[in-house]
Task: inverse folding
């Protein structure tokens, strides 16, 4: 593996910070998003170190949530940004540039994230239609967090003094994975994504995963939607929300998503 190289640039007022770990001769790129910063010990940018570099994950591009730079106190976000500036298109555009430089086809790109970064990863896949997303115990509907301090802090960065319900009405696709996927389906575009959900992470399983599965026609125990491109798996692990999937589970789903995305019939389709 080549030495990691850190890069930072501005997209409007958003600071995009990344760390690239290139793997010679790899044919795939995994974009590992991070939306958390422990302000008692760190300042942004912060990167998450799992998954570690391996042949399975290929080139790794680690990206810190630009939202974390927008305040000196917010410690968690979902790549939400501000009302005026959505970081998702900027992250996707940068990823495309890196993939091109590495010689990686866009259908060999996977966005990866846990929790709020999982929310960001899936949103990236709705913009980067040739790519995939793989999310672990993800936030899927920010409205389900409106009683939590971190969500209200995040919304305060999005629009100061805003009412949660008003923003959800005005920006349904920015605050809900289900609404973002519905947009792509209305445009007759196929999103490829996988979710691994720990059943012992009860809040995310009941408030996020089950409603998501219902919206795309998947059993609450997991399965695939009618296109086969949306895959959901459940697991039972001690540790709840922070538990990592057992060895090989995320890797096998990654390989499945890359295979599905490579099939000609699963490429994006245009409106007739």
Result:
């Amino acid at each position: 593996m080549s030495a990691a190289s850190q890069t930072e640039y501005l997209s409007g007022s958003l600071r995009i910070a990344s760390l690239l770990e290139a793997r010679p001769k790899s044919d795939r790129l995994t974009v590992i998003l991070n939306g958390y910063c422990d302000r008692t010990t760190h300042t942004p940018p912060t990167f998450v170190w799992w998954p570690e570099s391996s042949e399975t994950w290929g080139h790794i591009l680690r990206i810190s949530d630009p939202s974390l730079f927008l305040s000196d106190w917010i410690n968690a976000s979902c790549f939400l940004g501000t009302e005026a500036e959505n970081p998702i298109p900027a992250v996707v555009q940068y990823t495309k540039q890196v993939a091109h430089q590495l010689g990686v086809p866009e259908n060999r790109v996977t966005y990866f994230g846990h929790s709020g970064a999982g929310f960001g990863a899936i949103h990236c896949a709705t913009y980067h239609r040739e790519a995939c997303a793989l999310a672990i115990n993800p936030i899927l509907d920010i409205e389900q967090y409106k009683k939590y301090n971190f969500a209200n802090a995040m919304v305060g960065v999005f629009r100061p003094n805003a009412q949660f319900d008003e923003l959800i009405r005005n920006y349904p696709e920015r605050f809900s994975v289900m609404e973002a996927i519905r947009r792509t389906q209305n445009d007759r575009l196929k999103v490829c994504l996988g979710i691994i959900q720990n059943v012992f992470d009860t809040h995310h399983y009941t408030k996020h995963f089950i409603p998501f599965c219902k919206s795309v026609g998947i059993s609450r125990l997991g399965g695939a939607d009618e296109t086969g491109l949306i895959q959901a798996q459940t697991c039972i692990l001690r540790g709840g929300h922070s538990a990592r999937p057992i060895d090989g589970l995320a890797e096998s789903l990654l390989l499945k998503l890359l295979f599905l995305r490579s099939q000609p019939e699963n490429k994006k389709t245009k409106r007739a």
Q: What stands out?
A: The chain is about 30% helix and 20% strand. The mean pLDDT is 93.
